[in-house]
Write a structure and sequence with these properties.
Length: 317
């Protein structure tokens, strides 16, 4: 099977405060690099963008370091509720699930809903769909997330939680609400897809909806694809993913669209990050937070943003 263009790939595991030391940084780098290698290999076999995005999201959801799938944070009542979405430029369809519980990979449900007339389901509908699809019941709770929740309760809800990575030596109290994973892929046929998944921000009000199952946090057309991370409410207020993609669709370069959007975001005092690809294969990423946990494959080499702290709002390659 002959590929028409060189595939490109970028993934993220959240955004937040700086990691503790080189040990923590290297652990996260190893996780992200392995996933990039696996998913990029899939793209080289001729897999389409959505297949690559779903596989990447599954791998990130299965890594307990990240706040999605296994390792999701607990909400105020001690329950895990996850949200995920997928957008495929081939079909132009957005699909997702909101506040689904007791499944291993919410992104799989978003994929199924791509072909459904009802493409975004909330908690009750998501649970019914899981039963309909006979998805095995799964408990994603980890000891660290349970410990976080218990300590938070003992502190009378005064501290924050939902660290960007679930490692005792890496989690920062200022990382609340920034835990998300995402993948954007350009396949060998020139098509784009984006997927985003999250366990929420931790201790949120029951019923709170994140940006991860909205076009604000996950969006793709034939021109560009974007997955966001950070404070969900800030991403929603900026409508960040859709804003960047629409600007590219209207003729801006990806670099220009990202720079303008992040300049607006920092002016509005937002706390967020994003990864992006366009149809030409350009890769970009941005953050207003201290660190963005992202890695990419530009067709030749693998790079990441773990030590990107040069004061620039966006990166581009």
């Amino acid at each position: 099977m002959t590929l028409q263009v060189q595939p490109k790939l970028i993934i993220h595991g959240g955004a937040g405060s700086s990691l503790h030391g080189k040990g923590g940084l290297q652990t996260v780098r190893n996780s992200l690099t392995k996933i990039i290698e696996d998913v990029y290999s899939l793209l080289l076999t001729g897999a389409n963008a959505s297949e690559a995005v779903v596989q990447g999201c599954q791998l990130l959801e299965d890594d307990p370091r990240f706040n999605a799938g296994t390792g999701s944070v607990l909400q105020s009542d001690g329950q895990i509720r996850m949200s995920a979405s997928l957008m495929d430029s081939r079909s132009g369809r957005f699909s997702g699930v909101i506040n689904v519980s007791r499944v291993k990979n919410p992104i799989e449900m978003a994929l199924f809903l791509q072909k459904s007339p009802d493409r975004v389901l909330s908690d009750y509908g998501s649970s019914e769909l899981a039963r309909e699809l006979q998805i095995p019941t799964y408990n994603g709770l980890t000891d660290l997330r349970l410990k976080e929740w218990m300590e938070e309760r003992q502190d009378n809800f005064k501290r924050t939680m939902a660290g960007v990575v679930a490692e005792p030596e890496m989690a920062e109290s200022s990382n609340a609400g920034r835990g998300t994973i995402g993948v954007v892929a350009l396949d060998g046929y020139g098509k784009l897809a984006a997927g985003t998944s999250t366990g929420g921000k931790g201790f949120e009000r029951i019923g709170r909806v994140s940006d991860s199952a909205m076009p604000a946090g996950n969006y793709a057309t034939k021109y560009a694809g974007v997955s966001c991370t950070g404070i969900g409410e800030d991403i929603i207020d900026e409508c960040l993913a859709a804003k960047v993609v629409i600007r590219v669709s209207d003729g801006m370069s990806l670099k220009e669209a990202m720079l303008r959007s992040f300049t607006e975001a920092i002016k509005n005092e937002r706390d967020l990050g994003a990864i992006a690809l366009d149809a030409t294969g350009a890769i970009s990423y941005g953050k207003t937070s201290e660190i963005l946990l992202a890695a990419y494959h530009n067709g030749d080499t693998i790079g990441d943003t773990l030590e990107w702290n040069d004061g620039e709002l966006i990166g581009y390659c």
